[in-house]
From TrEMBL:
Residues in 4Fe-4S ferredoxin-type domain copies: 55-85, 101-130
UniProt xrefs under SUPFAM superfamilies: 4Fe-4S ferredoxins
Binding site for [4Fe-4S] cluster 1: C65, C68, C71, C120
Cofactor note: Binds 2 [4Fe-4S] clusters per subunit.
Keywords: 4Fe-4S, Cell membrane, Iron, Iron-sulfur, Membrane, Metal-binding, NAD, Quinone, Repeat, Translocase, Ubiquinone
GO cellular component: plasma membrane
Name this polypeptide is given: NADH-quinone oxidoreductase subunit I
Amino acid sequence: MPAESSRGDAAKLPRKNPVAGFGVTFKDVFKKRLTEQYPEYKKPTAPRFHGRHQLNRHPDGLEKCIGCELCAWACPADAIYVEGADNTEEERYSPGERYGRVYQINYLRCILCGLCVEACPTRALTMTNEYELADRSRESLIYTKEELLAGLEDGMVDTPHAIHPGMTEQDYYRGLVTEAAPGTERQPALSKGERPAGEGVEA
Ligand code: SF4
Ligand code: SF4
């Protein structure tokens, strides 16, 4: 009985035009193509797109990061690891007392929300528009301080180096330091093990 009933129901259904199923296809054939020629052509992002982070420098090259860890505490994904350390007059990375000795962002965890940027008190941490963050190993997606630190622009000297003569930490934030003082030289980076003792100092 149920089988006969379903045959009867099918007979009552209206017969459909077999060509009607191509309606969507025909409609789209004449639309403008939206194919992106990536990676040959990289479409510019919106100006405020949240991409890879950057650790910024002051205009003389000293680092803005003070190693306070506020960004790490603000991160909902626990993606940031920071270890701060004290500056010394012989080896200075930032104008104040402390600097970020170790800084890592784990892009396997990061959701690019930008909360860390909001938490940073010195504008040391910002986000670029770079979105190509895929890689072949988990380790390579943990970005180190050296990878995140902004490049050197005109008038900058790479850290560590002395504070601008006659300037205070506050002067840096008042915008009074506009470039490295003439004769500023890079100091030996002993704590990072970048230079063995006795090796020459790079200008
Ligand atoms: S963008 Fe968001 S998820 Fe990524 S490190 Fe910053 S706070 Fe964490
Ligand atoms: S990036 Fe900003 S919030 Fe994070 S440790 Fe450095 S100064 Fe502090």
